[in-house]
Amino acid sequence: MIRIEKLTKGYRDCEVLGNLSFHLEPGEFAFLQGKSGSGKSTLLKLLYREIEGFTGEIEIDSIPIGNLPKYKLRRKMGIIFQSFELLDRKTVLENVMLAGEVVGRDTKEIESDAHRLLERVGLKEKERKYPHQLSGGEQQRVAIVRALLNKPRILLADEPTGNLDTETALEMLQLLKELHEEEEISMLIVTHSEQVLKSLPGKIWVMEDGQVHEASKD
Ligand SMILES: Nc1ncnc2c1ncn2[C@@H]1O[C@H](COP(=O)(O)OP(=O)(O)OP(=O)(O)O)[C@@H](O)[C@H]1O
Ligand SMILES: [Mg+2]
C-alpha cells in the first residue's frame, strides 16, 4: 500500500530523513512515534505531497508518488494535520465538503457522504456551526471526517489527539479504530501518548536519526 525505500529529505542545510525505509500493508493500523523534530510530520507531508522534493522511492499502490496526480492521490489518501487546518470562515459542513470539491467529486454525493460521516461522529447538530464555535475535541472530529470524506484507502493522522484530555483522546482513537475496521482503511497515526499506544493494538514505528524502526510494546 505504502512502500518507501531509501528516502532522504532535508530542508536547506539540514537533513531530516536519511535513507529511510518503511512499508504499510493494506488494512494495517500502525503508530509512528519519535521525538519532537525527528521528522514525523515531514514524512506524512511527503506522503500526501504537501511538500515535495526528495531522493529515494515512495510508492502508493505500486505507483511512484510523483506519477500520481494530486487529485488521484488525495482520493486514495486522507490526512489529519497536526493543527487540523479548518477554515474559520466556513461552516463544519462546508469544511468537510471542500475535501470532495478539490478532487472534483459530484456535489450531491459529497454532501450525502458528509452528512453520513458527521452523524457517525456525533456532529450532526453542529453542521452549520463555525470551527471557533466548537470545542477542541469537536474540531478534531471535523478534521477526521474531512480526512475520511473521499473514502480513502489510507489515513494519515498527525497527532490527532494532541490537545485532548486523555479520556477524549482515547475515545477519538477508539473511533479511528472502529472506522478502520468498518471501512478497512490502512492507518498511520502519529502519537506521543504511551497510554494510547498501550490501549490499542497496532505496530509501533519509532523515528530516530532520520530512520524508522519497529518497536516492541513493552
Ligand atoms: N518548512 C521547513 N523548513 C525548514 N525546516 C523545517 C521545515 N519543516 C520542518 N523543518 C525542520 O525539520 C525537522 C523535522 O520537523 P518535523 O515537523 O517533521 O518534526 P516532527 O517529528 O513532526 O516534530 P513534532 O513532534 O514537534 O511535531 C525539524 O528540525 C524542523 O525544524
Ligand atoms: Mg509534527
What do these coordinates show?
With 218 residues, the chain is α/β, with parallel strands linked by helices. The chain has a single domain, classed as 3-Layer(aba) Sandwich (Rossmann fold). Helix content is 35%, strand content 28%. A six-stranded mixed β-sheet has the order 6-7-8-3-9-10, with helices on both faces. Strands 2-1-4-5 form a four-stranded antiparallel β-sheet, with helices on one face. It is globular and about 45 Å long. The two termini are 27 Å apart. Bound molecules: adenosine-5'-triphosphate (ATP) and magnesium ion. Magnesium ion binds at residues 40-41, 82, 158.
Beta percentage is 25-35%
Rounded to the nearest angstrom, the distance between the terminal CA atoms is 27 Å
Write down the CATH topology.
Rossmann fold
E-strand count: 10
Itemize the secondary structure elements and their pairings.
Blueprint: E1 2-11, E2 14-24, E3 29-34, H1 40-47, E4 55-60, E5 63-64, H2 70-76, E6 77-80, H3 92-101, H4 107-120, H5 136-148, E7 154-158, H6 166-183, E8 186-190, H7 194-199, E9 203-208, E10 211-215
Parallel strand pairs: 3-8, 3-9, 6-7, 7-8
Antiparallel strand pairs: 1-2, 1-4, 4-5, 9-10
The structure holds adenosine-5'-triphosphate (ATP) and magnesium ion.
Residues 11, 16, 34, 36-42, 82 line the site of adenosine-5'-triphosphate.
